[in-house]
Write a structure and sequence with these properties.
The chain is mostly beta strands. It is built from two helices and 35 strands. An eight-stranded antiparallel beta sheet has the order 12-13-14-15-27-23-22-18, with no helix packed on it. It has a seven-stranded antiparallel beta sheet with strand order 11-17-25-24-21-19-20, with no helix packed on it. It has a five-stranded mixed beta sheet with strand order 1-32-31-34-35, with no helix packed on it. The longest helix is centred in the N-terminal third of the chain and has 25 residues.
Length: 483
C-alpha cells in the first residue's frame, strides 16, 4: 500500500515537471527592437516660391461678395499660355519631412518624405483654371491639400485671401496659423499646421466657428491631392485604402461605368475585393463614396514604389470619405486640363468631410464651433495598409503557403509598442515583437511566422493598452482590366 502511494506521488510529480518543461519549451521569447536615430535639423523658414499658372488674369473679375470669378468667354486654356506667380511660403522641416505651405491660400503645397526623397503631393506643372459646379463656377487646380467650405465641389474659401502668422517657432514645435472668413455666410476657419522634431507627420488643428446671429448649414471637406511614391503622378498599381465594407457609386454621369462591376448594376457595392480599390480598375474619371468608415484613417498606397500616405482623423467629427481619380489611362486632353501636361497620369483626391456625403450639411448655431485635430504622413515598406493611427502604419499579411508577415512603419521616433501574433482559437502567442524604440527608415524589418492552416490575428499593444486586433489578409490581387 505504501509502495502504491509512493508510486502515485512520483507519477504526479513527474507529470507536473513534464508539463512545466513543456510550457517552458513552448514559451515564446520576445524579439526586442531598439534602434535610435541620430539628431537632425528642425527649422522654420519664411520664403517665396514661384508657381506656374494658366494666364487667366484678363478674364478675372471680383463678385459682390469679394470672390474672384473667371469669365470663360475671355479665357481659353488651350491658347492662354502661362504666367509665373510668386507666393509667400513657409517651409517646415525636420529630419524626416519637408513641408511647404502657401499660407495665403490656406494650403499645404508640397510634402517631401526625406526618408525616401519622394514628393507625396500632386504639384501640377501648370496650375489650371477650369469650370466647376461650385457657386463660383470655377476652380484653380493648384495641387497639395485644400480645406474647403461652405459647399461641395471645392467650395469657395480656396479662392479667398487667408491671413496667417507664425505662432510657435520653438525647439519643440513649429506652428503656422492660417485663417479665413467665408464671405457668403460669415463662417470663420482657423487651421494650425504644426510639425515636431521627431515626427514624419504634419498636424492640422482645425477650428470652425459661426460668429453670426443665424444658424448656418454648410459643408467642410479636406481634399488632399496625392501622388504617393514620388513619381509626380499616381502609379499603375496604386491602391485606394478605405476601412469600409461597402461603397456608394454616386449619381453622376461620369460614374456610370462603375455600375458594370455589380451583376445587378447596384450603386452600393462591396469594397474589399472590388476592382475599384485599385487604380487599374478605374476605366475612366469617377468618384466613389465610402458607405461607413470603421476606423479613422484612409490612404493611397503605391505598390510599385512600396510607399503610401495616410490621413488620420477623429471619425466622429469626420465621417465622410470620397475618392476622385482621373482613371487608369486618362486621355491627353484630360491630363493637360488638370495638370498642364499631356504626359501626367494625375493624382487621386481622397476627400474627407464633416458630413458623410456631398448631399448632407452640418449645422452651426450662433457662436457654436466645431474643432478637431488630424495628422497626415508618408510611410513605406509595408506592402499596403491594414491599420494606421497617428503613430504607425501596419500590415499583417498571410501568404498562400500560410506564412504570416508583420510589417510596421512608424510615423516618427516611437517607443513602447508590442505586436503579438496569436492563435484565434486559443489566444496562444506564436510571435512577440517589442518595439522598445524605432524610427522611420528606408529599409524596415519584417517579421515572419510560419504556421499551420489555423487562423491567426495580430494584437497591437501601445503604452500597455491593447488598441487593435487585426485578422491576417492575403496580398492584394490587382484586377486585369482591358483598357
Amino acid at each position: 500500500m505504501k509502495k502504491s502511494i509512493h508510486y502515485i506521488v512520483l507519477m504526479l510529480i513527474s507529470g507536473i515537471l513534464f508539463v512545466s518543461c513543456k510550457n517552458t519549451r513552448q514559451e515564446v521569447i520576445p524579439i526586442h527592437i531598439n534602434e535610435k536615430p541620430k539628431d537632425g535639423i528642425f527649422k522654420l523658414t519664411k520664403t517665396k516660391i514661384d508657381v506656374a499658372c494658366a494666364d487667366f488674369q484678363k478674364a478675372l473679375t471680383i463678385d459682390e461678395l469679394g470672390y474672384p470669378r473667371v469669365d470663360f468667354n475671355k479665357f481659353d486654356m488651350e491658347i492662354s499660355g502661362k504666367v509665373i506667380k510668386t507666393f509667400n511660403a513657409v517651409i517646415l522641416e525636420n529630419k524626416y519631412i519637408k513641408l511647404t505651405l502657401i499660407p495665403e491660400k490656406g494650403k499645404p503645397y508640397s510634402f517631401i518624405y526625406k526618408v525616401t526623397g519622394h514628393e507625396e503631393f500632386f504639384v501640377p506643372s501648370v496650375a489650371q483654371a477650369f469650370g466647376s459646379p461650385n457657386k463660383l463656377g470655377w476652380w484653380l487646380a493648384l495641387g497639395g491639400v485644400e480645406y474647403t467650405m461652405p459647399d461641395n465641389e471645392h467650395g469657395e474659401t480656396w479662392a479667398a485671401k487667408w491671413s496667417w502668422e507664425i505662432v510657435e517657432d520653438s525647439p519643440l514645435k513649429k506652428t503656422v496659423r492660417m485663417k479665413v472668413k467665408e464671405l457668403g455666410y460669415g463662417l470663420e476657419e482657423t487651421i494650425d499646421i504644426s510639425i515636431y522634431p521627431d515626427k514624419s507627420f504634419f498636424e492640422a488643428a482645425i477650428f470652425i466657428k459661426n460668429p453670426t446671429v443665424k444658424p448656418v448649414m454648410f459643408q467642410h471637406w479636406i481634399n488632399p491631392m496625392w501622388t504617393p511614391g514620388g513619381q509626380g503622378e499616381v502609379t499603375e498599381h496604386t491602391e485606394f485604402i478605405m476601412p469600409t465594407k461597402q461603397v456608394l457609386v454616386t449619381e453622376r454621369k461620369f460614374n456610370k461605368w462603375m455600375l458594370d462591376y455589380h451583376s445587378q448594376k447596384n450603386k452600393v457595392q462591396d469594397y474589399e475585393d472590388s476592382p475599384l480599390r485599385f487604380l487599374t480598375g478605374w476605366k475612366n474619371i469617377g468618384d466613389l463614396l465610402a458607405s461607413k468608415l470603421e476606423h479613422g484613417f484612409y490612404s493611397a498606397f503605391s505598390h510599385d514604389e512600396n510607399e503610401g500616405i495616410v490621413r488620420i482623423f477623429p471619425m466622429d467629427k469626420n465621417p465622410g470619405c470620397n475618392i476622385w481619380a482621373w482613371g487608369i489611362n486618362p486621355d491627353p486632353k484630360t491630363r493637360k486640363r488638370f495638370s498642364g501636361s499631356e504626359d501626367c497620369r494625375g493624382c487621386v483626391e481622397m476627400w474627407g468631410g464633416i458630413t458623410h456625403g456631398f448631399d448632407e450639411y452640418y449645422q452651426l448655431n450662433q457662436d457654436e464651433a466645431i474643432s478637431w485635430t488630424e495628422w497626415m504622413y508618408p510611410y513605406n515598406k509595408t506592402k499596403g495598409l491594414h491599420y494606421a493611427n497617428k503613430d504607425f502604419a501596419v500590415t499583417f499579411t498571410r501568404l498562400p503557403g500560410n506564412e504570416h508577415i508583420l510589417r510596421l512603419c512608424p510615423s516618427g521616433d516611437l517607443s513602447d509598442v508590442e505586436c503579438k501574433i496569436v492563435s484565434v482559437k486559443n489566444n496562444k502567442i506564436l510571435l512577440h515583437v517589442i518595439f522598445d524604440y524605432i524610427y522611420p527608415q528606408k529599409k524596415l524589418q519584417q517579421f515572419t511566422q510560419n504556421s499551420s492552416k489555423e487562423d491567426l490575428e495580430l494584437v497591437i499593444v501601445q503604452n500597455g493598452r491593447e488598441i487593435v486586433r487585426l485578422p491576417a489578409k492575403f496580398p492584394p490581387v490587382f484586377p486585369d482590366i482591358n483598357r
